[in-house]
UniProtKB/TrEMBL annotation:
It comes from the Bacteria. Pfam families: PIN (PF01850). The gene is vapC. Its EC number is 3.1.-.-. Belongs to the PINc/VapC protein family. It comes from Nocardia aurantiaca. Toxic component of a toxin-antitoxin (TA) system. An RNase. Residues 3-123 form the PIN domain. This is Ribonuclease VapC.
């Protein structure tokens, strides 16, 4: 049976807020053999920790790396997520933009169409804008 993680389980585990749910989430994670972490759930977890709990970017990146590399957590493409986390941390893009960069890097001769000029800081991708 596949068990998918929801954002609230990760948030409760990482913040221990509220304490009862935090303990329950941590215990569940510790006793589970295989849990599926969807890319979208990791993105939402980063967003909530950053916007609600005000966790700093380097700490968020470290937490995300631990989640993705945990022995009992399965992701569809861990290398893609690790690259997205690296871009998120080092280029100060939103995690969604960092994920898009990681996707584009994996596809030869691809471009990202975006008005977000920050993406251009990543020299390994080509950002284009719609013509005026």
């Amino acid at each position: 049976m596949t068990v998918f993680l929801d954002t609230n389980i990760l948030i409760r585990h990482l913040t221990q807020d509220p304490p009862d749910m935090g303990r329950r989430a941590t215990a569940f994670l510790a006793q589970s053999d295989s849990l599926h972490l969807a890319d979208l759930i990791l993105a939402e977890t980063i967003y909530v920790l950053q916007s609600v709990y005000r966790v700093e970017r380097p700490r968020l990146a470290a937490l995300a790396r631990v989640l993705v590399s945990s022995r009992n957590i399965v992701t569809d493409d861990p290398a893609l997520l690790i690259r997205a986390i690296d871009v998120y941390e080092h280029y100060r893009l939103s995690f969604a933009d960092a994920y898009l960069v990681a996707l584009a890097e994996a596809v030869p001769e691809s471009s990202i169409v975006s008005f977000d000029k920050g993406i251009s800081k990543v020299e390994t991708v080509n950002r284009i804008e719609p013509a005026t």
